[in-house]
TrEMBL record, chains A, B, C:
Residues 160-307 form the Aspartate/ornithine carbamoyltransferase Asp/Orn-binding domain. This is Aspartate carbamoyltransferase. It comes from uncultured Gemmatimonadota bacterium. It comes from the Bacteria. Gene3D superfamilies: Aspartate/ornithine carbamoyltransferase (3.40.50.1370). The keyword Transferase applies. Pfam families: OTCace, OTCace_N.
Amino acid sequence: MAHANAPYLGKDLLGLEELSREQIGAILDTAEAFKEISNRPIKKVPVLRGKTIVNAFFENSTRTRVSFEFAQKRLSADTVNISSTGSSVAKGETLVDTARNLEAMNIDMVVIRHGASGSARFLAERIASNVVNAGDGKHEHPTQGLLDLLTIRDHRGPLQGLRVCICGDVLHSRVARSNIHGLRTMGAEVGVCGPLTLLPRDVQTLGVTVFRRIEEAIEWADVLNVLRLQLERMKGGFIPSLREYNRVFGVTRERVERAPRDILILHPGPMNRGVEIDSDVADGPHSVILQQVTNGVAVRMAVLYLLAGGVPDHAEAAKTGGES
Amino acid sequence: MAHANAPYLGKDLLGLEELSREQIGAILDTAEAFKEISNRPIKKVPVLRGKTIVNAFFENSTRTRVSFEFAQKRLSADTVNISSTGSSVAKGETLVDTARNLEAMNIDMVVIRHGASGSARFLAERIASNVVNAGDGKHEHPTQGLLDLLTIRDHRGPLQGLRVCICGDVLHSRVARSNIHGLRTMGAEVGVCGPLTLLPRDVQTLGVTVFRRIEEAIEWADVLNVLRLQLERMKGGFIPSLREYNRVFGVTRERVERAPRDILILHPGPMNRGVEIDSDVADGPHSVILQQVTNGVAVRMAVLYLLAGGVPDHAEAAKTGGES
Amino acid sequence: MAHANAPYLGKDLLGLEELSREQIGAILDTAEAFKEISNRPIKKVPVLRGKTIVNAFFENSTRTRVSFEFAQKRLSADTVNISSTGSSVAKGETLVDTARNLEAMNIDMVVIRHGASGSARFLAERIASNVVNAGDGKHEHPTQGLLDLLTIRDHRGPLQGLRVCICGDVLHSRVARSNIHGLRTMGAEVGVCGPLTLLPRDVQTLGVTVFRRIEEAIEWADVLNVLRLQLERMKGGFIPSLREYNRVFGVTRERVERAPRDILILHPGPMNRGVEIDSDVADGPHSVILQQVTNGVAVRMAVLYLLAGGVPDHAEAAKTGGES
């Protein structure tokens, strides 16, 4: 079962750019079926029992790592974590050597987060184990994109024709890129809004509408996906100050209340409250930020299940332990 | 079962100050029943199978974290560790956001250690998951207090009327506070002994007897609980030197041998041998320091079991796997 | 079963120097039987279910720690990791106190890596739990030695009479010492080759042949075990430059092609490609470097199984879950 091409996804999940509408739909449907496991008194099914997974996080992350770990444990996999601190990578070993060594230990899957764009693909091409990209540089963060799509679908139904605006530091954001690819593939209209210094120069080639003013974005959109502002951008000269950023681009209650329709607010976290988003909005009635986190576990369970050769139609049976 | 108020403890264990004599007694009795599990060839019962627990240690600790982890694994829970290094907290996220995110992943329990007094309560009031305080600033460290009580009870029987003196840096010690509350609730007489600079100014309002000389404390007490001297206190000007501290307040063999009765010596560890306690005493016949560690696992198993809705009278049945 | 002297190994595995030919043979045979588990779809047998193991890595290591962790998880043990960062050791606690505390938590085994030669023995003499040395200073790294032996035996049959040359920084290498002891006990002829500054002064008392030129070593040997060059040696003045080291002692394709027989190339990793070994050789037909990694998991499973009281002849039965 392991190390084989999954019938629905291929060997790896590297980005949403490569996935078809059917593939994304299959992941979301499977995640929908898996949600219920995390609400059981006993949150555990034997789907990945005896599978060995390495979570290789060469960049810090609590939220994504913990989400993957619980997804793995709820599927009964055996997991080991490695981080950059203390790893052989710190001893100057190449990523390929690290990967080949893990594979030689008969690892079934590697979940990798790494600062270099393309590192997940680089790895995937060199080992037979399934590779899941948990964020590679500025490239993609596909499970984040998928959980955003699932959360929007939960609240607004089919994504076709929905208007979703991604706000903030699109230039440096792998979350933005995964959202843009996933949303467009599913038929949504995508906008971006942020200071020119934080939008990619070629942003229009991505097939998105560009908004210069947050008020216009809010008037246009059914959904806002508000990106985290990396505070170090200020030092880099991309924005004049945090206060100024909040004044011009902050998603505030006042602005949200002027929206012409019942707008949905997402944020991938961790939030800078009072910078890109105000607490009133983050904790308000339009926010689905915590449901994104809940959906994150379900989406990651679905991806791991499908990569291990699971079949979407069998997800219900797998949950009862009928398939292991 | 999870997220409900435990019939015996309420939703959380935040401190011993809030617990009644019956509640503390129930925890100690349950711990007594659970001790035996750690002596089996197969140290595992299915009491918390499929429960998900996060150990969030924002301050370093090996001993407490490992003790909780083994308690959790022996009860078959799925656990994930997060530490301050590499966590979203390091990215500037608030503790509330971290907590809400964990909860959104359908976590059953959070074990938290944090440098700020009151942080465990702050968390507990904001999430529905059970919260166990594993040490919050200078406030409380309730499972340490409970394991101290259990160890004293193991050796001296009922705590009612026993004289227990807490020696050393009472001012900065959450262990001291948990001991004082727990011991007094159980009817013990409590003394404290240390340099005036390391005793709280309002110490007498806590209902304890103050000893200025270690010799007097030893003459009075049935039990000494010797606190770790934080070596950084010397730099803070609280004590003149380590050597001087040992000379005046050190629990030495010579002093212990002059005790009028068979005194019992506890220390929460890690020990500064030759400072607050001499090796002769730490490893001598009066010391029950290693039994404290053994009892720590049993006490933590009991607390997790009771918070998950377990009933003390059923602890014996739970151990055989008859209840999961 | 636990804490008892294993009939085949004694209580601990501290080094290969102490093991007899029969003992090493028993470990290798057991590892051979366990290899197959890691190729199953469900890589898990209940051999160590309910056993608790601490991996105490006071020096950084990804590869060895991950290998031990997967070995433990594939045998169904419960494991907890501690590292120097954040441990009580960082608070000034002695290694003995740390060890006694772990033991007091009813730990069955401790796997220790530590910078001080002799630390594993020091620990083993003070606690009843089984101790496995995962590398102690410049002394020994016995599971690495065993996996090297297993890999050579897999490819060249019985070790008796084989010529194995260890190349590089023999002076500082615990891998070299474990190899020399293990290989000589099994009847192999052992050579060493490296700059005089990186060979122990008393190297000849170890019963090995010394080669000053890598070309001579290659002409003599059936097997080369190429050690990692610690890059900090250059700063220490042990070698003039990395380029010069590669020029004189590097295992290059050109040199390997001149070997008079089908030479086998091992390296314990992580490799400095282009320094002690060229990529052509590391990834070439003579290299068994990745098989070493694969064998590492099997060897560690075997060691843990035997220390827990397992019997080599029963290893096959244990694999089917017939013995737990």
